[in-house]
Automatic annotation (TrEMBL):
Protein's name in the database: Helix-turn-helix transcriptional regulator
All copies of domain HTH tetR-type, residue ranges: 7-67
Start-end of DNA-binding region: 30-49
One example GO MF annotation: DNA-binding transcription factor activity
Segments crossing the lipid bilayer: none
Gene source species: Pseudonocardia bannensis
Superkingdom of this protein's organism: Bacteria
Length: 189
């Protein structure tokens, strides 16, 4: 029962934090405001999230999970490996470009500690996305070598995140490039 109450509080805190971050941006967001909105003490909030950075990490992981659900649906709509990866990458880029939370987290001068969650400290995001994409690929195309699939999924994930953080080309071009890399790696090792 206590675990269920804690999970509900965590979800409620993440929902409220998302609203506050979208409204105020990361620099304008304060843990005390979130605690007030939830009607709990700051200490209770800090027991669940180790500060503003810990809360931001939890939000990024939850956002990643949402994106991965959309990406998996995009992969499932395609029978061809190349087309599946084009759809997956395009879905990730489109979802990221239209997500108000991601925009709130990425805007600013970079000194507020959020950008590293998608760059230098992105290991949890890369790991979650790579594992889920790799598992999907192996369920769908079981003849591929699991080690090769793991590499391809990680490379595709890193390239997609890189484009989301610093887009240099149109999304369609990037999706095609990443799908080509994945397909060539898996089919022509």
């Amino acid at each position: 029962m206590a675990e269920r109450a804690r999970a509900l509080l965590r979800d409620e805190a993440l929902d409220a934090a998302e609203e506050l971050l979208v409204d105020r941006g990361f620099r304008g967001f304060h843990m005390r405001d979130l605690a007030l909105r939830l009607g709990i003490s700051r200490q209770t909030l800090y027991n669940e999230f180790p500060g503003k950075q810990g809360l931001a990490s939890a939000l990024v992981l939850r956002l990643t999970s949402r994106f991965l659900d959309e990406i998996e649906r995009a992969l499932a709509r395609e029978d061809d490996l190349h087309a599946a990866w084009v759809a997956a990458v395009r879905t990730a880029i489109d979802a990221a470009s239209g997500d108000p939370l991601l925009k709130a987290l990425l805007t600013g001068d970079g000194s507020d500690g959020v950008l590293p969650l998608l760059t230098t400290e992105s290991e949890p995001v890369v790991q979650a996305a790579s594992e889920r994409a790799g598992a999907y690929l192996l369920r769908r195309w079981s003849h591929f070598d699991p080690a090769d699939v793991a590499v391809a999924a990680e490379v595709a994930t890193r390239l997609t995140i890189s484009h989301i953080v610093l887009p240099l080309h149109p999304a369609d071009v990037v999706a095609e490039q990443i799908a080509t890399v994945v397909e060539r790696f898996l089919i022509h090792p």
